Each structure stands twice: as C-alpha cells, then as structure tokens.
Automatic annotation (TrEMBL):
InterPro entries for this protein: PRTase-like, PRTase_dom, Upp_B, UPRT, UPRTase/APRTase
UniProt entry keywords in alphabetical sequence: Allosteric enzyme, Glycosyltransferase, GTP-binding, Magnesium, Nucleotide-binding, Transferase
Chain ranges of the Phosphoribosyltransferase domain: 15-214
GO MF annotation list: glycosyltransferase activity
Lineage: Bacteria, Pseudomonadati, Pseudomonadota, Alphaproteobacteria, Rhodobacterales
HAMAP family (alphabetical): Upp_B
Organism: Paralimibaculum aggregatum
Catalytically driven reaction(s): UMP + diphosphate = 5-phospho-alpha-D-ribose 1-diphosphate + uracil
Note accompanying the cofactor annotation: Binds 1 Mg(2+) ion per subunit. The magnesium is bound as Mg-PRPP.
Entry's family note: Belongs to the UPRTase family.
Keyword Kinase: no
Positions bound to 5-phospho-alpha-D-ribose 1-diphosphate: 85, 110, 137-145, 206
Residues reported to bind uracil: 200, 205-207
Protein name per the record: Uracil phosphoribosyltransferase
Pathway as given in its UniProt record: Pyrimidine metabolism; UMP biosynthesis via salvage pathway; UMP from uracil: step 1/1
Length: 221
C-alpha cells in the first residue's frame, strides 16, 4: 500500500508533466479556458496511474503479418462518478481514455458556514457491484464531500472504489482514510494545510469557480 505524508493508501503522481500542469493551474492569472484545458490534460495522466492495475486478458488476434495472443482489457467494467460541479472538469478526459465507461453524477456543495457537504443530486448507474467505481473531484479539502460521496456509491453497491483528486490537504486526506481505509486516493499533490476558511493552502482557489468562470478570484483578498 502506498503512503504519502503519513497517510496510507494515498498516492501522489509526481510525473513532471503532471506537476508542470498543476503549477500552471495554481497561478491566479491562468484563464478559465486554460484552466479547463489543463484539468482535462492532467486527468488523462492521473487516470493512467489510477487504472494501472485494471485486469487484462490475452485474446487471439491477426495482424497483417501473423496471428498472436495480445492483451486486452478483461470484463471488469468502469464507472466514473463526477462530484459536481468541479468533478466535471476531470470527466471528459477520463471518458476519452475509457469510452465505454458508465457515468454517475453526485451533486454536493459545501455549505459556506458549516463547510459540511449538502446533497442536491444523486444519479448513479444501476449495476455498480462489479464495476471499478472512480469518484472524481479536483479538491479534497476537509474531505467532507469525498467521504459522503464514497458513502453514497458504497450504498449503491460499489465495492471497488477509487478516488481521483488534483490537490489534497493532509487534514482531509487523513479524515478520508479514517472513514474509508479501503479506498485508494490518487492526486497530483498533497498540499500544506487548510486555512481558516477551509481552503487548501497553497491550493488553487475554488476549483468550480475557476473551471466555469463563475467568480473572479483575482479580485478576492
Ligand atoms: O473537502 P471539502 O471540504 O468537502 O471541499 C471540497 C469540495 O469543495 C468543492 O466543491 P464546492 O462545494 O465548491 O462545489 P462546486 O464544485 O459546485 O463549486 C470541491 O470541488 C469539493 O467538492
Ligand atoms: O481549496 C478549496 C477548498 C474547497 N473547494 C475548492 O474548490 N477549493
Ligand atoms: Mg466551488
């Protein structure tokens, strides 16, 4: 089992391309369009690591030259579950990698005062039991949203659950592991801490607002 900053089952994907793209996303002058493009690009690289252990089987194929036994993905199907809104920034890249995947959506927002997740949508495929279920949300801050989303997919029958994030806070990563020790987390970076508003430091601000351009973070103090 991997471990980062003392948190078991947490993997940082330290590839230079991932770290370079994350640095560009953190910069406050990065435009909404670039932020969106970078998140999509990074999702491919993170998912490549997260899905490294997908089972394969050998099948007989014919190339123009010879017959051979060649590897292909075996029966285990994948479901991506986006935690709205910001999870949608990771979703399209993942579907480019695994076009046959099913897709679920969980709508959660953090109450601005309590910082607790508030549910407004849950639409999941019927048959999660035999699927690899990958929850996606760029930000794991207090992990309240992630913990609740995993609870919801487990309640719907998911057994092989994984979590894909971009940036995590150590406080949130520890809380997540305490709640769901069986669920591996892959992220580009474990950051330093949370601030008084429960934002990740140094982080990148509010991922949903930056992805969709709903608030001009450059004017925030
Ligand atoms: O770990 P937590 O403390 O729960 O915080 C992380 C959550 O906050 C953000 O969503 P937000 O509530 O801003 O919703 P949005 O994606 O619609 O902007 C983020 O995308 C996570 O879902
Ligand atoms: O740093 C944070 C914390 C919660 N949600 C975000 O989008 N960013
Ligand atoms: Mg937000």
């Amino acid at each position: 089992m991997s471990e980062t900053a003392g948190v078991p089952n947490f993997t940082e994907v330290l590839h230079p391309l991932v770290q370079h793209k994350l640095t560009r996303m953190r910069m406050k002058d990065t435009s909404t369009a670039s932020f969106r493009d970078l998140l999509r690009e990074i999702s491919l690289l993170l998912a490549y690591e997260l899905l490294r252990d997908l089972p394969i089987e050998e099948v007989e194929i014919e190339t123009p030259v010879a017959t051979m036994m060649a590897p292909k993905l075996s029966g285990k199907k994948v479901c991506f579950v986006s935690i709205l809104r910001a999870g949608d920034g990771l979703l399209q890249g993942l579907l480019d990698l695994v076009p046959s995947a099913r897709v679920g959506h969980i709508g959660l927002f953090r109450d601005p005062v309590t910082k607790l997740p508030v549910e407004y949508l849950c639409k999941l495929p019927d048959d999660l039991t035999d699927r690899v279920t990958v929850l996606v949300d760029p930000m794991l801050a207090t992990a309240g949203s992630a913990i609740e989303a995993v609870r919801m997919v487990k309640e719907a029958g998911a057994q092989d659950v994984r979590f894909l994030a971009l940036v995590a806070a150590p406080e949130g990563a520890r809380a997540f592991h305490a709640a769901h020790p069986d669920v591996p987390v892959f992220a580009a970076k474990m950051d330093a801490c949370l601030d008084a508003r429960k934002y990740i430091v140094p982080g990148l601000g509010d991922a949903g607002d930056r992805l969709f351009g709903t608030k001009d973070h450059r004017s925030e103090d």
